[in-house]
Structure formats: C-alpha cells, structure tokens
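Retro notes - structure team

What went well: the batch runner handled both jobs without manual restarts.
What didn't: labels got mixed up in the shared folder, which is why I'm recording both outputs here explicitly, each with its sequence directly above its tokens.

Job 1
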Amino acid sequence: MKKHTLAIGMAGLITCFSSQADTLLGLYAGAQGWNMETTGGFSDDGSNIAFNFDDKTKSSFYVALEHPIPLVPNIKLQRTAMDTAGDVLVSASFTFDDEIFTANSTALSDVKLTSTDAILYYEIFDNDLLSFDLGINAKYIDGELFVIDKNDPTNSGREAFSGVVPMAYSRIAIGIPATGLGAYVEGSFLSFDDQTLSDYQAAITYSLMENFAIDLTFQVGYRNVKLDLDDLDGIYSNLEFKGAFAGLEVHF
C-alpha cells in the first residue's frame, strides 16, 4: 500500500513538473520570410549615392532561451540576410574605392549585408495577457559593397566592412484569451552623434498548436531596418530596408 501511494505521489510530482516546465525553461526557434524593399545609398567618404534597389525576398532566423535564474538575462540570437542590388544614372561624378564614376554613366551596385543580433534581456512582466521585455542588443553588421560601371566593367570598386553596434532593446506582447490570437512589437534602437540605427517589427500571431511538448505559432507582420552609418569601418550609409514578413515560431 505504501509503495502504491509513493508511486502515485511520484507520478503526480512528475506531472506537476511537466506542466510547469514551460514557465521554468523555454526554448524558442523561429524563421521568417521577408519581402524586403530597399531605399537610400552608401559611400566611403560621406557623399552617399542613392541607388534604385531591387525588391528582394530575404530570410531571418532566431533562437531564444528563457530561464528562471535570478539576475541572469535571457538570450536571443537572430541573423538576417539583407543582400540586394541596384543601379543609378550618375548625375555628378563620384568616387568609390578610389575609382571615379563619371556623370551620365550608369553605375551598378551589389550589396552583400547580414545583421546578427545578440540580445540579452529581462522579462519585466510576463503572463498570458501581457509581457514586457527590456535589454540590450549587440548588433553585428557585416557587409561588402560593390560598384561597377555598366559600360566599362574595368572600372569598379569594392569595400568590405563590419562592426558591432550596441543598441537598446524592448518587446511588448499581448494575447487574447481563448482565441489563439496575439500581437507583439519588438525593436532595437541607437542614436549617437550622426549615427542612427533602428530595427523594429510588429506582428499579429496565431497559435496553430499548443500542448505540453510543443507550441507552434504563425506570424505575419511588418519589419523596418534603418542603417544611418557614419564611418562604420570606413563606410557611410542612409539605407532603409522595409516590408511585410511571415514566419513560424516553435516553442519547446
């Protein structure tokens, strides 16, 4: 009888622990497809040249780990591809990588750019109706810019650059009980001297699956990234990337 009672007690304890595991430790993984429109331009001397960039469909992936350890922040890692290409009819001659692109020529650009976010944050408030996160984001920007004269392929310039930019981070999410619907706004921001960077997204979410083992959520929203760089590893820019996205998030 005692053994039977002990077994029931252990089973109840295991069930209780399983039901609370989500509140103790959570692993999130997500992927998004982003219909990205790019505007603005870049230079290596501050005289930014605006290009007519093509619209692209790009991807973003992230993982996040949340835990109950006091004073130790949660962590989120996100990587976003922002490659694009464009052209411009040069109205006044400009120089890039010590190469001169003359007026009335057509310059083609190829932009290779990735953004990697390492976010440390605290859950200031968190329940099924409302959550609020606050933290810092070390955004690592890694890129290569290529410009070539359409009519003279021997005239081209290439500049590679990279750097880490510290940014403030916050996220607010709400849920509508008994509907599976929710919404969130998430963003990072920095404004210092002539350097301004922002990265924010807003989305509506819908729970496709929710049980003890896994939660699956669909997202649809809008993302905007602005990179007003002032001599980041020798590069200047006033680039803006924006557009709608859709994605899936898995919560273990």
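Job 2
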Amino acid sequence: MSSLRTWRRLLPALFVAVGLVGCSDQNSEKKTPAAAASETTKASVAVPIGNGFDFYVLSLSWSPTWCGDNDPNGKSSQCEVGGNRGLIVHGLWPQNEKGYPDFCPTRQSDRVPSALGRQYLDLIPSMGLIGHQWRKHGTCSGLSQEDYFAVTRAAWSRLALPSELSPARQQAHLSVAGIENALVGKNPGMTKDGLAVTCEGNRLEEIRICFDKSLNFRACPAVARQACRKDSISLPPAP
C-alpha cells in the first residue's frame, strides 16, 4: 500500500516532466527553420532581377589612386584628409558576353533624387558619381533607380574583402596574383576568371568582380583579360 501511495504522489510530477520535455521538443522544432535561415548565404537573398544584359560587373575603385590624380588637395568629400577610404564602389555595370550597353533609353528620370542618392554615399561617396553611374549603366539594367541602387548595395554586401585591401596610412606593395588569391580565398564560389585587378601605371586602380543577375559569382573571361599585366603594384595610402 505504501508503494502504491508513493506512485500516486509521483504521478503528477511525472506528467509535468513529460509535458515539459514535449514542449522543449516542440520549441526545438520551431527554432529549426530560423536556425536554417540564419545559415542562408547572402547570395540566396532575393534581389530584383534586371533584364537586357547578361551579367553584372561590380567595379571597385581604389580611392587613394583616384584622389591622387584628380583631387590631391582633398577638396571633395571622397578625398578629404582623414576620410580613410580604400575601395569604394565605382559602379555596378550591366555587361554582355561581348561588350556592354550604356546610356540606354528609359522612362526613368536622368536625375537621381538627393533623398535616394544620400542613402548610398557610404558606398559611392559622390552625388555626381551616383548620378553618372545611373545614367550610363543603371539605365541599361531594366530596373528602377531604387532597385538598381538596392542591387548595387546587395552586390557590395555579397563580397568579403581580405585584410590586404583595407585602407592604410602607409603605401603597400602587393602582387596582382596575391590580390586575386586573397579575394578568391575569402569568397567561396569566386574564381580568378571571374575578376580583374586593374592598374594605373604601377598603382592599383580598380577591382572588378563578375556576378550573375542573382548576384552569384560567375566567370567572365573578357573582363578577366582586362587585368593588370604587372607582377606587383602599389596601394597608395588613404589621405
């Protein structure tokens, strides 16, 4: 009898324990999709899909090289002393397998409203350059201004830059192959035939990365052939 009474006292506690385990399992199952979502790559995030071209080239300019040639006194916001700018977005260029379209007819305005352009000054630090990129390249994307610049940011976010390409206070010297290897090693899916490191004399000028319309890395032999032929180049320091 004492054993029976003991079990009767224990049964409610056992039911509670079983219920807690069941709830825990259910909560684990509910968290699984969120956990899986957190592992989704940036490339799988939906982006507006353009039309009228084959792929994109994301062109990144080494700002100190441009500033040294065009604004050595740092009058513009891009080149101001202390700005510490290294690679900036030159533009996102719709590209064809042979050649590229530019200045395409569109019902969109030629002018980029300042309210829109200011949202992208962290990537393209000049309203003049933002407007030029839209008129020359964005009009050929088949996208609205808002979507074109949204895709530009998404392409930039898709890319992981190696530490070798961080802005520095002292001039650095790197091999072109070393820059390519660092980029490929940092970005799964990227290959050397999907990028080009260009130079202005002995200095780094631009890095061009090819993406498909969904912003997956892709090969682009015609672009890759534009790469600098020098063994090593310098990276001028940020002002």
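One thing worth noting from job 2: The chain has seven helices and six strands.
We'll revisit the folder naming next retro.
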